[in-house]
Amino acid sequence: ALKCFSKVLLKIKDDKTVFIARGVVYQDMGNHQLAINDFNEAIKFDTELSEGYYRRGLSKFYMKRFKEAINDFQLAKDKEEDMLDHDSTIEQNAGIPDGLGCCYHSLRDYDKAISYYDTAIEMMPENTEFLMHRAQCQYDQGHFDLSISDLRKGLKEEDGEAKNDPQVLYKLGLSFYANQQYKKCVSTLKHALQNKPYISYEADIYYHIGLAYCNVEKFEKAIYPFSRCVSIIPSEIKYIHERAKAYQMIEDHEKAVYDFDMVIK
After folding, report:
1. Residue 94 contacts residue 127 (beta carbons within 8 Å)
2. Any idea what the Cα angle at residue 164 is, between residues 154 and 186, rounded to 5°?
3. TPR repeats located where (predicted)?
4. Neighbours of 215 (CB within 10 A)
5. How far apart are CA 212 and CA 92, in angstroms?
6. Same-fold call for 1-81 versus 198-265
7. Per CATH, the architecture of 1-81 is what?
8. Which residues contact 205 (CB under 8 A, 6 or more apart)?
9. Closest alpha carbon to 6 in 32, 37, 28, 45
10. What are the pLDDT tens digits along the chain (265 aa)?
11. SS3 string of 114-172?
């Protein structure tokens, strides 16, 4: 795709849509500075281009340049409102308020973040990503019931059927754990495992299953999930430490001592 867009730009050097398209490819690849360069070119050809500012804001957000991203998202919002004044049929981009919410969330301005997330979700009530963002913001404030509510909505299709998104199930399980609903935590996280989660958070799923079992004093059941954690990330001391404590609670002292020795080393 990059080669195709680059060939087009060699022939037509002022095509803003091609700059945007190539920038999006760079963005998807995680090459955000190259993406920003292309979005800059698109904006240079059309300073009223809402999508250019929005896309540039996304890349700046991913680069943790949050205040710059806010400026771009606000510009995108302003340009979109100008367009709506001339044509009310234009579809609004719900990603703009969501992007603003993500920036303010990262800056720990939770009230502003929630306000923008609310706007995005009002525009697209079924959008799982937006619901997850707001749920995480509620979680970070300790509002676990609200987090659970949003994540449950994120698991429902438009027809009311349940989705099996492992990442949403993972986040829901963490919210149940934080809310001290340990049985629901275990069942939800096991459901996440059945749906092939990414390896990046698989160990954390097992870890919280083990912790939840310990919180209801089912220490023997905690051994297996802690052992799975250790097999996935052998260098993570907290996994070995929690398994050692579980062994200690079931009076398997030899294995407990072995794990405690590993922690000390």
Report:
1. yes
2. 95
3. 16-49, 94-127, 203-236
4. 15
5. 43
6. yes
7. Alpha Horseshoe (1.25)
8. 170, 173, 189, 192, 193, 197
9. 37
10. 556 656 555 556 678 888 999 999 999 999 999 999 999 999 999 999 999 999 999 999 999 999 999 999 999 999 999 999 888 888 999 999 999 999 999 999 999 999 999 999 999 999 999 999 999 999 999 999 999 999 999 998 655 566 889 999 999 999 999 999 999 999 999 999 999 999 999 999 999 999 999 999 999 999 999 999 999 999 999 999 999 999 999 999 999 999 999 999 8
11. HHHHHHHHHHCCCCHHHHHHHHHHHHHCCCHHHHHHHHHHHCECCCCCECCCHHHHHHH
d(CA 59, CA 25): 12
Structure tokens at 112: 């502003």
| Residue 257 parent element (H or E) | helix 253-264
The correct answer on CATH 3.10.560.10 for the domain covering 198-265 is no
What CA–CA distances, in Å, run from 257 to 60, 172, 186, 220, 235?
A: 49, 34, 27, 16, 18
Question: Which tokens in the block code for residue 146?
Answer: 């609200």
Helix axes 219-232, 199-215, angle to 10 degrees: 160
Structure token pair of residue 106: 């990262």
Domain residue limits, the chain: 1-81, 198-265
